[in-house]
Amino acid sequence: MSRRCLVVHPGALGDVLLAGPALAHIRTLGYRQTLAVTPRLVALFEGSGLVDAAVDLETLALHRLFVEAPHRDALRALTAFDAVVSWMGAGDAAFRANLAGIGRPTVVARAAPPAGSGRHVSRHLLETLAPLGPVPADLPVMSLHVSEEARTTARNWLAARGIAVGEAIVLQPGAGAATKLWPGFPTLARRLREDGLPLVALAGPADHAAVQALLDVGAVREDVLARDWPLADIAALLALSRAAVGNDSGPTHLAAAVGCSTVALFGPTDPAMWAPVGPRVRVIDGRAEGSAWPGVGRVEATLRALLASPARELPREPGQAESVDAWR
């Protein structure tokens, strides 16, 4: 019988996707995994094939472990697992002690290395697993499955707009913080559309201003906005598209994870820590040119080079890469 491992990650979409290589490694150690995440992410990871099950983190009521001598019911659910990995609670002595008290192999570690460390989050998370077994030198390959139902939804949506599978260029102009928004999206989108490339834009609940800027310059039409889609359908759209260009945001990490050719744009955040992980990723960091953000011309050239490159696998190990050449 396979051993069972509970993995706890309280982060947002991009943060959890960067744990993909570590999750793949846990499986090679012989564990069936249950991933506890925020409610919005459960459906995506439940059908991802990356883990065996996904549950709402809140249902575990792990907040009860942040006190000394918790009621025994607080630990009961955890005893069903042969190991527990928590990328939460590392800074709390009571939480660490209570997890250790279940008498199972446990890992309690921070979800990211210290800022400025130059260590990528995926590498950091992988190395936290050393108590469970030897850690590989290379990042394990992660594979994120997209359901056929979601593929059908995305395929039909594209077809209704006259876009064939494998043709769309998906733009992700939004991000979780205003400081992560690359200002060049309207200009880039207008250039790509003038060149006849079929564009699609993702529009989340917090992306109104960024998306409206594309509409205002006529770079995209309202009917090609994938507005407020479920994450599983966004994953399918990205998997069926030719390429994606996005800010340091969850959907950009999702594009990389499903194997879409991805251009990830970084300004204030450090790609050495936060670059997406996937087989066809190009990272552009404006700081390489001494600027807050990369210029539109550089982003366009990188995208076109990626579109022209053969569909071969690129290095999966993220690092200081700042341009198309650095990823070869």
Q: Give the count of helical stretches.
A: 13
Radius of gyration, taken over Cα atoms and rounded to an integer in Å:
20 Å
Please identify which CATH superfamily of the largest domain we are dealing with.
Glycogen Phosphorylase B
CATH fold name of the largest domain: Rossmann fold
Biggest pleated-sheet summary: 6 strands, parallel
Short characterization:
The chain is α/β, with parallel strands linked by helices and 328 residues long. The protein contains 13 helices and eleven strands.
Can you walk me through this structure?
The protein is an alpha/beta fold. The chain has two domains: 3-132, 3-Layer(aba) Sandwich (Rossmann fold); 148-327, 3-Layer(aba) Sandwich (Rossmann fold). Helix content is 32%, strand content 16%. The strands form two sheets. A six-stranded parallel beta sheet has the order 8-7-6-9-10-11, sandwiched between helices. It has a five-stranded parallel beta sheet with strand order 3-2-1-4-5, sandwiched between helices. β10, α12 and β11 (281-285) form a beta-alpha-beta unit. α8 crosses α9 and α8 (185-194) crosses α13 (296-308). Mean pLDDT is 91; it is low at 312-328.
